Amino acid sequence: MHEKLVRTAERLASLGERPAPEPPDEVNAAMIRNWTQALGDTRDWGDEAPPAMAQVWSMQGLGAAKNGTAAAEVLRMLDDGGYTGVLGTDCEHSYDRPARLGERLRATMRFGDVTGPKKTAMGEGYFVTWYESWYSGEERIAEMLFRVLKFRPAQPSPEPSPDFLRPAPASVPVPRSDWPPLALPLTPTFVISTAIATRDFTPVHHDVALARAQGSQDIFLNILTTMGLVQRYVLENEPDAALASVKVRLGAPAYAGDTLTFTATRDGDTVEVLGTVSLGAHVKAAVTLR
């Protein structure tokens, strides 16, 4: 399978930028309200969409066919080869301007690469990278690099304790921060509602049994939510700033029942954001301000 996978990846990369499935909805206030409420973002966005929502407009929703994207063929091959687990690992956004209410965006994609097999904490897997861009007419709004780990699920974790019997998360030292730390309790409601608000219906963010069948302890925060929380933390502390780019790399999963604490250090127009959970660093992000 490996050689066929590499050949397929090379062929897809050679195709360059291609049209992606059309975002199913125009930029609208209802989706923005659901997203901001779920993430606890209290900023008044006016007639603009939060930049970190860029990918949300392209999410096709529950039950939609997962085809037509730059990486779909490679992802199907990995599923067929037993690499059925999926975990977002990296996401990088660059912003030209915010999307505005009423705009009907169009999207394009291009395939990046596939690397592996690699041994990871989740099991043996391949990293798959692709790019997506969003346009209003011919004007580009944003561009994204997205990377996932497709892995062979390890043995399921033992049966979880009921919520009220779960041990409290271990105390984690708070790193030095130029801004007040932001501590967010990751209740099951928070994990599930933010995944739905980002139109991510991957079962590991909603269904405990399916998450554990892939070797996870519990349901966990999705990468689109982490991206939004990084944006929220930065703009709550720099309300007059605008985002030029956000680069996120995930580490330890942010499981339901834990607490996610954000800290940051700023050097000029660059903000380094760290999000920690009881297992260690959940996210390291580099944010560039305009």
TrEMBL record:
Pfam families: MaoC_dehydratas. Residues 185-269 form the MaoC-like domain. This is MaoC-like domain-containing protein. InterPro entries: HotDog_dom_sf, MaoC-like_dom. Belongs to the enoyl-CoA hydratase/isomerase family. It comes from Actinocorallia aurantiaca. SUPFAM superfamilies: Thioesterase/thiol ester dehydrase-isomerase.
